[in-house]
Amino acid sequence: MERTQVGIVGAGPAGLLLAHLLYTEGIDAVVLEARSREYVENRVRAGVCEHTTVGLLRDLGLADRLDREGLPHGGFSLRFDRADHRIDLAGLTGKSITVYGQQEIVKDLIAARLATGRGIEFEAADVALHDLETETPRITWTDAGGTARELRCDVIAGCDGFHGVSRPSIPAGVLTAYDHTYPFAWLGVLARTAPSSEELIYARHERGFALHSMRSPELARLYLQVDPTERLDNWSDARIWDELATRFSVDGDFTLREGALVEKSITPMRSFVVEPMRYGRLFLAGDSAHIVPPTGAKGMNLAVADVRRLGPALVALLRKNDSRPLDCYSEQCLRRVWRAEHFSYFMTTMLHRAPNADPFTDRLQHSQLRYTVSSAAAATSLAENYVGLPFD
Ligand code: FAD
Ligand code: DHB
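Above: the input record for the complex with flavin-adenine dinucleotide. Below: its predicted structure, written as tokens.
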């Protein structure tokens, strides 16, 4: 049987960053990932890094490429009723966000991990967790070569996302789940073209929400609200561009630049939280414990925020036998999680058009949008949540 201090399930932002934090403190960890390296490095997902996320990556010496290639943004536009309204993030909060693809962060973290000489067990199949309520939990799996393996740990970190094995390994009745689904999904595309605007545009239109974002000066990232039952086959490139052009239409100077679509996907929208984020010696972090609809750009940032607490708490246990920080882990994380849940719900319900929306809801959305862009207090509230609230 193999032995490590922390068994980490999942090589997404949460698992990889935790492995690095632990490495810098001299704690041994093994990372198991169900997919291949190529797959995780090319999975197109989040794009917005809160200033707190960027700060942590810089502190750990992991932000060289992010600082070179990331796009700092001091504001974004709320577009509705054919007009743009800028939310001046930097002016309102003194802080900004950075647009840098999640898969770029994942690439940087994988490179940093491999540079330490400690690998990642990619393509780990049949991962199963055992003895979680004891002080020596175990992980079993079949490795990429087909060999059955077993790892004894002091602690397991469940960083395996919403569909992972960690959360379902906790016995029924232990967790309380809070679940909310929305009657929307996002169709996301990556387009080989210069972005049509320097800043992000969150557009609310009668036909539904649309988002204009980017990855680089040559690559635009665009999203359309669609029905959750929609299939990609129904969306030809021409239909996608037509719909984007309609939803981004505005009185004033704006041309939607088109280009070849190199990636298309549909993601359902959901809010989900489990409490507590712990069972015995298993600690959940990131999407394995909570997900948010993407409108507030919080998912990856929350995963990073969890790990920022979990890393030092594990160090306290494993170095000084002090379990107090781990005992507070779930409660402290959940405070930030629920704030982000509310913010994401707020952004989602303000900007999306429900399928049969009644005129009352429509009026409320407009009122909220107008208030947000006309009151410094309301705009500041949105901005401070968007850039990332400070840690207490
Ligand atoms: P994941 O990134 O899901 O990583 C989990 C890893 O575990 C995966 O690599 C998976 O393959 C692996 N795994 C799963 N099961 C097993 C198993 N049984 N054994 C071993 N490994 C396993 N967030 C933002 O902050 N800003 C945004 O702008 C944003 N936009 C988004 C846009 C879209 C379209 C989507 C889909 C998401 C967006 N998010 C955004 C959310 C963000 O991508 C996630 O919250 C983030 O990936 C969570 O990181 P994680 O490490 O917890 O989980
Ligand atoms: C992106 C994704 C989001 O969910 C968001 O709110 C802003 C930007 C992006 O992928 O660039």
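Notes for the reader.
Residues 9-15, 32-35, 40, 45-48, 102, 124, 127, 159-161, 164-165, 186, 188, 267, 286-287, 294, 297-301, 303 surround flavin-adenine dinucleotide (ligand 1) (CB under 6 Å).
The radius of gyration is 21 Å.
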